[in-house]
Specification:
5 helices, globular, mainly alpha, 80 residues, single chain
Length: 80
């Protein structure tokens, strides 16, 4: 695949999010690795449960880490 034609996933973020991401995700390749794993987890949940998952997260009724197995596991391990 031509590197110029690779699929991309882009969206706007706030200045605060940009500042925090720059501060916390400064290691080369970290953003791609992290958000690729998170995107896969979200897509798995959507395939399994449908758009109700997206609605719950977008409405703020649940935090992503409350419904995403990848984030639940990471949080549990970080607390040990």
């Amino acid at each position: 695949m031509n590197l110029d034609n690779r699929p991309r996933f882009a969206f706007d973020i706030t200045e605060e999010q940009q500042y925090r991401a720059s501060k916390l995700l400064s290691t080369h390749g970290m953003r791609k690795a992290l958000f690729t794993a998170i995107l896969d987890d979200v897509l798995d949940l959507l395939e399994e449960h449908g758009n109700i998952i997206a609605g719950l997260i977008m409405d703020g009724r649940v935090k992503p880490r409350e419904v995403m197995p990848l984030l639940q596991n990471a949080e549990r391990r970080a607390k040990k």
